Amino acid sequence: MSKRGVEEAQAAGQLLKESGLSFDIAYTSTLSRAIKTLWIVLEEMDLMYLPIVHTWRLNERHYGALQGLNKQETVDKYGKDQVLVWRRSYDIPPPALDASSEHYPGNDVRYANVPSDLLPFTESLKLTEERFMVDWENTFAPAIKDGKRLLIAAHGNTLRALVKHLDNISAEAICELNIPTGVPLIYELDDDLKPIPQQGAIAPLSGRYLGNLEEVKARILGVANQTK
Fold first, then answer.
1. Are the beta carbons of 155 and 34 closer than 8 angstroms?
2. How far is CA 23 from CA 41, 51, 59, 68, in A?
3. Are 181 and 5 within 8 A, CB to CB?
4. Contacts of 46 (CB under 8 A, 6+ apart)
């Protein structure tokens, strides 16, 4: 996790604490950067005693044969137009890797208890959403209906899957939506688990980001420009 990432997580925790929000349970992925982000946020909020649940279904989208390359390296290797097809299409995945790759989850002890037929060789945003929605339906939604306040530390594409579901965003629109790193996004849901629109929300989301909205918009733009 970079120094900037640590600072963003600390700032996020401070914003959450200053907002007066609290939580009953925390969820994160099995990937180090999300786990450490959650640890830092909980420390800033004095909530390190909260139970933490790790689930691989919150992992970032698996980019197949592109795994291990950063966004600019991918552009340099495959060209901007092709990368944009992979990044901005809903159902076109990058080339798959094979089972011998170090980046195949089946070769990682973290996934030893996950059935091999569920582990991805590559994923589109659509496949990422389908993977995430299993946890939404079986874990997150029941916990919310039970009155629990959830803190989720995840990744850009699994968070896109979450807001796509909550705000009923189209497949076309979600491909253009960017989630800034390290900025808390707050949703309040009604009894039917439908979002209650928040003042200051940035369309098409009905949840609101904490912090200075102009700075948040600038960070959203920064995500959009990462492959330029």
1. yes
2. 12, 10, 21, 34
3. yes
4. 17
Closest CA to 9 of 45, 35, 46, 38: 38
DSSP string, 25-87: EEEE-SSHHHHHHHHHHHHHTT-TTS-EEE-GGGSPPP-GGGTT--HHHHHHHH-HHHHHHHH
Structure tokens given for 75:
């552009």
Residues carrying CATH 3.40.50.1240, the chain: 3-61+128-224
Cis peptide before 204 (omega within 30 of 0): yes
Question: 221 phi and psi, to 5 degrees?
Answer: -65, -35
- What is the number of H-type helices and E-type strands within the chain? 9, 5
* CA distance between the termini of the chain: 23
Which CATH architecture does the domain made up of 3-61+128-224 adopt? Answer: 3-Layer(aba) Sandwich (3.40)
Task: Tell me, rounded to whole angstroms, the distance of Cα 60 from its chain centroid.
Answer: 6
**Tens digit of pLDDT at every position of the chain (228 positions):** 899 999 999 999 999 999 999 999 999 999 999 999 999 999 999 999 999 999 999 999 999 999 988 878 888 889 988 988 888 899 999 999 999 999 999 999 999 999 999 999 999 999 999 999 999 999 999 999 999 999 999 999 999 999 999 999 999 999 999 999 999 999 999 999 999 999 999 999 999 999 999 999 988 888 776 655
